[in-house]
Amino acid sequence: MAEQPGIVITGGSGRMGQMLIRTVLDADACRLVGVLEREGHDWIGRDIGEAMGGAAVGVTVTDDALEAFSTAQAVIDFTAPAATVAFAGLAAQARAVHVIGTTGLTEEDIASIDAAARHAVVVRAGNMSLGVNLLTLLTRKVAAALDADFDIEVIEAHHRHKVDAPSGTALMLGEAAAEGRGVALEHVRDSGRDGMTGARDRGAIGFHAIRGGDIVGDHEVLFAADGEQIALRHRATDRSVFARGALKAALWGQDKRPGHYDMLDVLGLND
Question: Which of 41, 119, 162, 256 is catalytic?
Fold first, then answer.
């Protein structure tokens, strides 16, 4: 029997990093072989199990990404754009599947990730959950069925610590709506209304970000016309849904050709 794929988790001390570590440790189909943290972090050199307040698991936290990736078949990465771009190049060198849940990436960042994807499998999504990816498909189909008499608004809510807005998931939903309408999101995006903004532009796709408390993730796409409204909504109540999706992507990518994929590919939902 082939050895189970080895997984490295980046940003291991964060809430998402710890959830990913627990998910991998609990899984039967893979092994945790590395945990990364930034240089100077208190967890460097410690067993990750003990650092998280439990029993030792035999994996030491490191800041050496190149060494960690050299033993891995997959890297799961929910960190920050600059770190993710650097990790993409190193994961490609190691020919490890790079699963990216990082949000806030620029077009330049994505171009760098595209370059890495010529040499290894990259799976990138603004949201790794099954439900959100189904919502993305529904959004695209509904937008394609309705004309611009229906205004589209994307409303999202997250915990107070989230640093980017709109969320990566909200932008993913906006892209789906724009694709359904046959337009580029950059030409119709309307974010952050404040003051005397004037009437809403016909065909615009609006975004609204709510930040508060410990909200895990709440996304709604509203289609509103005179006399009727259609609302598509997904609410995540546990961060584990993202971790399970990311692990599914890491395992799915093991026998795939190099390329830049998304969760719809992983779930077999792309046309």
Answer: 162
Which portions of the chain are predicted below pLDDT 70? 1-2, 271
| CB distance 10 to 17 below 8 Å | yes
Which pLDDT score is estimated for 82?
97
Establish whether 162 is a catalytic residue: yes
pTM, two decimals, is 0.83
Q: Which domains does the chain have, with CATH numbers?
A: 6-124+239-266 (3.40.50.720), 130-236 (3.30.360.10)
Token output for 48: 């990750």
pLDDT at res. 2: 58
Buried b (16+ CB within 10 A) or exposed e, 61-84: bbeebeebbeebbbbbbbbbbebb
- Amino acid (1-letter code) at residue 144: A
> What is the largest distance, in Å, between two alpha-carbon atoms of the chain?
66
Is 158 an annotated catalytic residue?
Answer: yes
The residue from 158, 208, 234, 260 that is catalytic is: 158
Spatial distance between the Cα atoms of 195 and 136, rounded to a whole number of angstroms: 31
C-alpha 132/C-alpha 30 separation (Å) is 25
Q: What is the pLDDT of residue 135?
A: 96
